[in-house]
Amino acid sequence: MSTSDVSARMEYAAIVGGCVSGATTAGAKLAGKAPSGTIPHAMILIFGDTVKATEAFDKQLPPEFPRIALVDTFKDEAEESLRVAEAMGDRLWAVRLDTPPERGRVTPDLV
């Protein structure tokens, strides 16, 4: 079994267990769902810039999939949200915050 098979089967199990969909095409397809998801921190770290990672993500997704950008990897969440919104325009559907406790976590004041 290849790594991609394991990943797809793990996503399938998550969907069967109650998740709405999977983040990969293979995992979602096994469960008869459309893939959905957001950009992971790892992708942003590899690109070295939230906007560059979001634009790369945008280029790979079919137009009907919502673009959800993770905006708490490098800089202030508000600053990153504005940078991504400016670059993406109407293509941006939402931003995601999962700021860890070490950085103050997501709070009503942050949002």
TrEMBL record:
Annotated SUPFAM superfamilies: Nicotinate/Quinolinate PRTase C-terminal domain-like
Signal peptide bounds: none
Family annotation (InterPro entries): Aldolase_TIM (IPR013785), NAPRTase-like (IPR053190), Nicotinate_pribotase-like_C (IPR036068)
TM region positions: none
BP GO terms, sorted: NAD+ biosynthetic process
Designated name of the protein: Nicotinate phosphoribosyltransferase
Protein source organism: marine sediment metagenome
